[in-house]
């Protein structure tokens, strides 16, 4: 079922994308959508205040195992998105996914196959992928 959702989404994007069908339009809209995701997150900090960025150097003790490393790493986010900010971030991420699918369509790439290849790579390389 999950596979069908990805394929259906990519097909629906193909069906509705009319105005920005040029690869140049798609690339610029994709970049713009990324900026809007960033802006929505930043406004959650600066305008709403539901989350706070508490960034500082991540202190990692010497001689810890890879498995223990995540215990010492932080995403630097304090708080939780409120419902309004969550809706806005989700909307902008949805738009970003739309233009990602459009980019795949323009280049005759299958988004589901790309995702499956990434999963296989992560499963195969595990901690050595180090994303």
Ends distance: 27 Å
Question: How many E strands?
Answer: 2
CATH superfamily heading: MazG-like
Mean pLDDT: 92
- SS summary, helix count: 5
Helix and strand string, N-terminal first? HHEHEHH
What strand order characterises the main sheet? 1-2
Task: Indicate the structural class.
Answer: mainly alpha
Helix fraction? 55-70%
Count of separate structural domains: 1
Instruction: Compute the CA-based radius of gyration.
Output: 19 Å
How is the biggest beta sheet arranged?
Answer: 2 strands, antiparallel
Report the β-strand fraction as a percent range: under 5%
- Stretches with pLDDT under 50, minimum 5 residues: none
Draw up the topology in text.
Elements: H1 2-16, H2 23-48, E1 51-53, H3 66-69, E2 77-79, H4 83-106, H5 111-125
Helix pairs in contact: 1-4, 2-4
Protein name: DUF1573 domain-containing protein
């Amino acid at each position: 079922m999950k596979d069908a959702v990805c394929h259906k989404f990519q097909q629906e994007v193909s069906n509705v994308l009319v105005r920005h069908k040029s690869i140049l339009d798609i690339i610029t809209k994709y970049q713009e959508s990324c900026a809007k995701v960033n802006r929505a997150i930043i406004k959650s900090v600066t305008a709403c205040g539901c989350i706070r960025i508490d960034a500082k150097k991540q202190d990692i003790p010497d001689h810890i195992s890879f498995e223990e490393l995540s215990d010492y790493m932080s995403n630097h986010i304090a708080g939780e998105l409120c419902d309004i900010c969550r809706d806005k971030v989700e909307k902008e991420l949805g738009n970003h996914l739309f233009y990602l699918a459009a980019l795949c369509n323009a280049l005759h790439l299958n988004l589901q196959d790309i995702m499956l290849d990434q999963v296989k790579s992560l499963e195969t390389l595990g901690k050595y992928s180090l994303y």
